[in-house]
Amino acid sequence: MRKFNVTPDLTPLYRSAIGFDRLAKMAEHAAVQNGNTGYPPYNIELLGENRYRITMAVAGFSMQELDITSEGDKLLVKGNKVANVNDERKYLHQGIAERGFERTFQLADHVNVVGADLENGLLNIDLVREIPEALKARKIKINTANNTIDSE
């Protein structure tokens, strides 16, 4: 049987957010480059002009088994399932993956992680693009011999 690598189509995000297209492309590129199996599945949402959310399906993982690290322009999410030696269950079918994972996201310039929460088996990681004052657009005055004209 042939396996096809299916990556999510993030094209709608490219049209609606400036700066986020780079984040989405880097995330897609990293997933293909690292040979990720697509586990755990995740979504990337645009919540506002400079607000984003990564939602990962981490059913079966507790807060103690998840680790989120943000360093520079990389966001690393790890899940290490703790083996229960007293677990004597015998599965007839085990379709819920309980294997550990490590997923890396490349963050765009000035995108910071502001929080994370775990609810109903979904890990939500909130991101904000905070542009420094020095890089924001500012109004420049144009001087003439007779008067000053404001320009944008």
TrEMBL record:
<dbReference type="InterPro" id="IPR037913">
    <property type="entry name" value="ACD_IbpA/B"/>
</dbReference>
<dbReference type="Pfam" id="PF00011">
    <property type="entry name" value="HSP20"/>
</dbReference>
<feature type="domain" description="SHSP">
    <location>
        <begin position="33"/>
        <end position="145"/>
    </location>
</feature>
<dbReference type="InterPro" id="IPR008978">
    <property type="entry name" value="HSP20-like_chaperone"/>
</dbReference>
<keyword id="KW-0346">Stress response</keyword>
<protein>
    <submittedName>
        <fullName>Heat shock protein Hsp20</fullName>
    </submittedName>
</protein>
<dbReference type="InterPro" id="IPR002068">
    <property type="entry name" value="A-crystallin/Hsp20_dom"/>
</dbReference>
<comment type="similarity">
    <text>Belongs to the small heat shock protein (HSP20) family.</text>
</comment>
